[in-house]
Specification:
Elements (H helix, E strand, L loop, with lengths): L25 E2 L5 E7 L7 E5 L4 E6 L2 E8 L2 E3 L4 E7 L8 E7 L14 E7 L37 E11 L5 E5 L11 H7 L16 E4 L4 E8 L5 E5 L4 E8 L10 E2 L6 E2 L1 E4 L3 E8 L4 E7 L2 H6 L2 E6 L1 H7 L4 H9 L32 H26 L2 H14 L1
Parallel strand pairs: 1-9, 10-13, 12-21
Antiparallel strand pairs: 2-7, 3-6, 3-8, 4-5, 4-7, 8-9, 10-11, 13-19, 14-18, 14-20, 15-16, 15-17, 15-19, 20-21
């Protein structure tokens, strides 16, 4: 993230592996059923996972139990977790490969030396090297998590409060390509927002005390919150909410403004998880109950996008949090040791005095500023004066003036 990367091209990974090992493998005992807990710990890459010759029964997403759903492959964005059951075969004459394939559509370029298709063997019999034919689905997977249904039923209810978060990437006033919600790239405050909530009393109810560029939203205790996420970018983005599992209640093309007819609603026991992929040029609608007082981060889980500012802060039930919560002294000491103020608003001051709070990084104004208008007016006036001078000179008779001078001289 620097001025020499105006398009915001992300670093493409050089490699990938499963189970923290380039030579990973599993052993299956015939007839047994195995639970595989799949976790995408990448900073950027999204993966398709499959096993040659085996079906996958999805039973969990991001810690939420799911009605058993049989698929041939699954898709995991950065930060997503998913559990599948795999029934081992009774025949040991063949071994099989499991595959984790990078979604290369996310990359601006694919290096020639990158191997995006990662495989690891599952052995039924390690005494031979006979493997089943490769059935790697790669990027052809049709898996869509929105069709999954939680084991514990929770139908969607009407929201009490709605947030509209529209995001994109642009070059900002500091010359860097940044991500932002509603025109505001996130800048970390000088005081952690949770400390601000717990030390600012009634001011904790004011979004501004958390900083002009923290995209802070105050949520009332126990309200049903609906968040509309509009993706104006040309890539998919995984959004993660701390402190909650949310319902994925709607999705559609374009921007949702309350009237967009492309929305497909999922209100009967909708998918619940804490990380959702918002497709390029699409919108996704999520809902959650504000029943966990505190400060919760909502952000894109692609590391480079979080760093660039694609994040917001949900300030949930501030007064309830103040009544229920205390921070250990060690956290205050940690702030002090790090050179941060452990108390106060985003500037380390009190109340609405935000002098010195991180700010000033904004979208470049599309049009003329006041200074620009003044400069343009000055240029126009100077140009008109220049044109007038040329016209006046063109209509003058310099020879007549010369004759008058000569005549006057001769008379003298």
């Amino acid at each position: 993230m620097n001025v020499n990367n105006p398009t915001g091209a992300e670093p493409v990974p050089q490699s990938g592996f499963m189970m923290d090992n380039a030579n990973a493998s599993l052993s299956f005992i015939p007839g047994k059923t195995y639970r595989l807990r799949l976790i995408n710990v990448s900073a950027f890459s999204m993966f398709y996972f499959s096993i040659d010759g085996h079906e996958l029964d999805v039973i969990e997403t991001d810690g939420v139990g799911i009605e058993r759903t049989t698929v041939s492959s699954v898709y995991l964005s950065a930060a997503q977790r998913l559990s599948v059951l795999v029934k081992a075969k009774n025949d040991t004459s063949l071994n099989y490969y499991m595959h984790a394939d990078m979604d290369t559509t996310m990359f601006d370029t694919v290096p020639d030396d990158l191997k995006p298709n990662i495989s690891a063997p599952i052995y039924y019999d390690r005494s031979h090297s006979q493997f089943a034919p490769n059935q790697d689905v790669g990027n052809a997977s049709t898996f869509d998590d929105i069709n999954l249904r939680p084991l514990i039923r929770q139908d969607a209810v009407k929201p009490d409060h709605q947030l509209n978060l529209t995001f994109d990437f642009v070059v900002t006033t500091d010359g860097i390509n940044r991500g932002f919600f509603n025109g505001v790239p996130y800048l970390s405050p000088k005081v952690p927002s949770l400390h601000t909530l717990l030390t600012e009393g009634d001011y904790a109810l004011e979004p501004t005390v958390y900083g002009p560029q923290t995209a802070a939203y105050i949520l009332n205790h126990l309200d049903m919150i609906e968040v509309i996420i509009n993706n104006l970018d040309s890539n998919n983005h995984p959004f993660h909410l701390h402190g909650h599992s949310f319902q994925v209640v709607g999705r559609g093309d374009g921007v949702y403004d309350g009237t967009n007819k492309s929305v497909v609603w999922h209100l009967d026991n909708p998918l619940r998880r804490d990380t959702v992929v918002v497709p390029a040029g699409n919108f996704t609608i999520i809902r959650f109950r504000a029943d966990n007082p505190g400060v919760w981060f909502f952000h894109c889980h692609i590391e480079w996008h979080l760093e660039s500012g694609l994040a917001a802060t949900f300030i949930e039930a501030p007064k309830v949090a103040q009544e229920r919560m205390t921070l250990p002294q060690s956290l205050y000491d940690l702030c002090t040791a790090s050179g941060m103020s452990p108390v106060g608003n985003a500037a380390g001051r009190q109340g609405l005095d935000l002098r010195g709070a991180p700010s000033g990084v904004t979208e470049i104004y599309d049009g003329f500023t006041a200074k620009g208008k003044g400069a343009m007016a000055g240029c126009i006036i100077a140009a008109l004066l220049g044109i007038a001078s040329i016209v006046l000179y063109a209509h003058a008779d310099p020879e007549r003036k010369a004759r008058e001078i000569v005549q006057q001289s001769s008379q003298e």
